[in-house]
């Protein structure tokens, strides 16, 4: 239905409702004008649904009283009624009222149902409906690129609530978004990765689905993209997909995810955001490993070169990166398979921690943050020395 005809329909039905609700008897007895001045409008704090329900329950009996006067809320319908009354001819109104009164109660009920239906249709579309539309647009190849970008931007917002994320797969959206990771347009690829990351975050159901649909492998390739934002969003999505997800982690290692991280960590010319995200992921993976002591530990965690590249991050001038590196080192030190002597002799962790201390104490601009990191640094030092003592103690 067109907007215009919808408006006319509302107008007509509101009239029927109005006439039924105010009570025709009262109108007749006291004259329309007096009724109007006495407060013709029923209480208008409710929503459309309430209005209909009220009309239903009270049928055509008189409902208005002085207390039920205008008490705010719902200004548009209220305004419409005022306008309608102001512009109506009392004789006509009376005629309409009489014709309505002649309707049988069955017919009235049917009309009320029709009003209700109309009101339902006027409601905002649900999130699921909006997602369906966006997915349809993405699938419609005759739409221009700009519309596809726009559809993805909408999905990005819509997937935030966990229920919506779950609906996305039911609507067939995940497969389509994963397909869009291959789009020639980098903006489309970037937003698609972002959506997958958002939807997978703390959501094992979506993680599983994206993994099954082959999303992880594609996202890992995208981390190497020369478009910076694409690489960042891809790494974000990879982290969200494998966080607390052992199947995802297994696949990540099988696809040489460890090498990917090492390359990023050991190359200081790589974007700082990518480096922070990578070391954060290392900390997360090591922590996950700590939680599953029975499983064989990942060889990469005991790779000396890899450990060295993590330790070297402590020399960064970026406090955020330093902090994340410390968390990673702390978790790595607690793994059974990491060797305290490798940290000591090959990574030179003692010297690194000492230099970090001097740097943190000299920090001027972000003193509080630096002090927070310093206390984490001391904790790491203690854990390190504890681990070292265990291996250097002479058995008695
Ligand atoms: C695709 O978009 C075009 C242009 O808006 C539209 O005419 C067409 O009906 C759409 N096709 C589908 C299958 O929705
Ligand atoms: C380090 O990263 C830069 C920028 O991405 C790249 O050009 C360079 O080849 C990398 N160096 C090594 C040794 O991989």
From TrEMBL:
Domain of life, per lineage: Eukaryota
Pfam families listed in its UniProt record: Fes1
Annotated GO CC locations: endoplasmic reticulum
Domain Nucleotide exchange factor Fes1: 77-168
Gene3D superfamilies tied to this protein: Leucine-rich Repeat Variant
Transmembrane intervals: 6-25
GO MF term list: adenyl-nucleotide exchange factor activity
Record key words, sorted: Membrane, Transmembrane, Transmembrane helix
Keyword Kinase: no
This protein's name: Hsp70 nucleotide exchange factor like
Protein's organism: Actinidia chinensis var. chinensis (Chinese soft-hair kiwi)
